[in-house]
Amino acid sequence: MSKYSEWGPTELFGLIDNPIANIHSMLEIDAMYLQTAITNLEVAKEQKTQIELAVHDLTNHHDVKLLEAYDWGDEIDLIDGSDLPGYINAIERLEEAYSNYLQSLATVHIFCALSLEAHINQQAMKLLVGRMRNEFDRFSLEAKWLTLPVLLGHESYDAGAEPFQGFSKLVKVRNTLVHFKSSSDKWQRSIKPAEKASFGLSLEEAQSSVDTAKRMLLQLSDLLVVDKPLWLTAESRRFFQINVTSVEGCKTPVAEG
Predict the structure, then answer these.
(1) I need a labelling partner for 256 at 20 to 30 A (CA). Which of 77, 115, 184, 248 fits?
(2) What's the burial of 22, exposed, middle or buried (CB within 10 Å: 0-12/13-18/19+)?
């Protein structure tokens, strides 16, 4: 993201029409992926409130008290659809609330991993050449992050410490979600679905993935002794890096962004 990223249409169109300027743009897809994760984390926080409201409605439904009074347990006869319709509707509202929430949490993990994968590949394209670059493409994601600093003559991450340990966990969670194996869980009268701890589908673990992604990106800049990505701290939602250079004969050079 350059200083031109914050320009409006008037400034940018002025440059485009200016015959003395060369303009090049590049999509910063790593930034776009990370912002997608951050946005979904905020959405998940709001959806958690909707779950709490749905749980409250369900636990206070008069049919729940009827179930308890007759000790019908978890078995509900749905053959003709006439038994406890209000209770079933309340369950469906809770199911919808949970579905939206889990979707947002899964998106956080997957796009954090995508951002880190895109970023390390972009850095390798810029900094490696020839056979070294080709060999690098064959590495696993974790190996790429450990190896790139070493290939460039720098120290690398401590694989046994944070943030790399959190990164390894993020990769495992992403793989579990992407290669998901479905299972059926019995609905408990405790209202909420069975916990999916191994899937990372909780606010705490989603927040951890975002924090880990940011720390990995910042530490890579330190290890490689390069500038930190501006989009890590900027609040802009524009994901194009705009570089502007002057052409021969220009009396007033245009700075590169």
Answers:
(1) 115
(2) middle
Q: Where are the domains of the chain?
A: 1-24+239-257, 29-238
Q: Cα–Cα–Cα angle for 143, 147, 152, nearest 5°?
A: 160
Q: What pLDDT, in 10s, does the model give residues 19-76?
A: 556 777 788 999 999 999 999 999 999 999 988 888 887 777 655 555 554 444 455 5
pTM of the model: 0.77
Residues in the chain: 257
For residue 130 the two structure tokens come to 């020839």
Are 111 and 200 in contact by the 8 Å Cβ rule? The answer is no
Q: Are residues 30 and 118 in contact, defined by beta-carbon separation less than 8 angstroms?
A: yes
Distance (Å, whole) CA 131 – CA 135:
6
Question: Cis peptide before 163, with omega less than 30 degrees from 0?
Answer: yes
Tokens of 196: 């999916």
Sign, Cα dihedral of 143, 149, 154, 159: negative
246, 253 contact by CB (below 8 A): yes
| Contact indicator for 3, 244 with CB cutoff of 8 Å | no
In tens, the pLDDT along 161-180 reads 999 999 999 999 999 999 98
Tell me the three state secondary structure of residue 24: strand
In the chain, beta strands by DSSP E: 21-27, 240-246
Count of CB atoms situated within 10 Å of the CB of 93: 17
Please give the distance of CA 148 from its chain centroid, rounded to a whole number: 23
